[in-house]
Specification:
hpI Integrase, Chain A, 13 helices, 5% strand, DNA polymerase, domain 1, single chain, mainly alpha
Length: 294
């Protein structure tokens, strides 16, 4: 089947080739082509890919692909759709896609009484299960930090990751003046290593997150001079590294599982221990992206 990519997709891929590896470009091209081919199979002549198109692809074509592949499709097409919009960051498009999947799935169930995940395309359910796999422990981690390490550097990192869904590289590059304590917002810049050009966008923070930030800055942030003078997250050596972010999360996750045991008087369930052992900034980002609508 001949698949004619939307004009905007061709331009996006051409621009991508200028600053990305061939493998990255091929991955994006395959994802966009797959969704476009699905559109054409529905007797449509696609002009652009929409959030709704991606949701339908996930629900009705998902059984052909592994869950990790579908996550890759969502990530790639989110970046493409964001590219076609002037000021919409990829993470917001991804949120919209995830929400569209849920909405469309509910509509199908109401009309037919059949859940798409019960047909021959069960991956729509598997995606939600995969996204939900870390939820219980992440909520336990946040509870532990709020009770036992309120306003610590690690607590502040977790709250920001959970509320903004930013990448760890973006978190690491945050400066003090990126936070507007009066307006309750934080300025996030997408990672320079992403396949698309970096973008900046404001994210609103909850009152709790702002309070945690204020507590951290007042009590724990280490001040420096020179290049790292404005760094939001610091260590004794300067701006925090992504490796230190990961180590901090790992240590907090281990303590949170111990806290769970102490609070409940029973051993931490195997599932929670496994989540604690493998927790990464990506898991917190996934949690944020899939709970932003709540």
């Amino acid at each position: 089947m001949v698949v004619d990519l939307p004009r905007g997709a061709v331009e996006f891929l051409d621009e991508l080739e200028e600053h990305s590896t061939e493998a990255t470009v091929q991955s994006y091209r395959w994802a966009i082509r797959s969704v476009t081919e699905f559109q054409q199979q529905q007797d449509e002549t696609p002009t652009e890919i929409t959030v709704g198109d991606v949701a339908e692809f996930i629900l009705f074509e998902g059984s052909k692909y592994a869950t990790t592949t579908l996550h890759g499709v969502i990530q790639s097409v989110s970046s493409y759709i964001a590219h076609t919009r002037d000021e919409t960051p990829p993470y917001l498009v991804k949120q919209q896609i995830n929400e569209a999947v849920r909405t469309l799935r509910k509509e199908i169930v109401l009309k037919t009484g059949i859940d798409p995940s019960e047909l021959d395309n069960p991956c729509s359910g598997s995606i939600e299960e995969a996204e939900h796999s870390e939820v219980d422990f992440i909520e336990s981690l946040v509870e532990y930090l709020r009770h036992c390490n309120y306003g610590s550097r690690t607590h502040t990192i977790v709250e920001i990751l959970v509320e903004t869904g930013c990448l760890e590289n973006s978190l690491q590059q945050l400066d003090l003046d990126h936070v507007d304590f009066q307006q309750g917002t934080i300025l996030i810049q997408s990672s320079k290593t992403r396949a698309i050009q970096p973008q900046t966008y404001d994210v609103s923070l909850s009152d709790t997150c702002i309070d945690v930030l204020e507590t951290y800055v007042a009590r724990e942030r280490i001040e420096h001079r020179g290049d790292d003078a404005m760094a939001l997250f610091t260590t004794g050596h300067g701006r925090i590294s992504t490796a230190t972010i990961r180590r901090s999360l790992s240590r907090a996750a281990e303590k949170a599982s111990q806290y769970h045991t102490a609070q409940n008087g029973t051993e931490c369930p195997d599932k929670l221990r496994e989540q604690a052992a493998s927790l990464s900034p990506h898991d917190l980002r996934a949690y944020a992206l899939n709970h932003s609508h709540e």
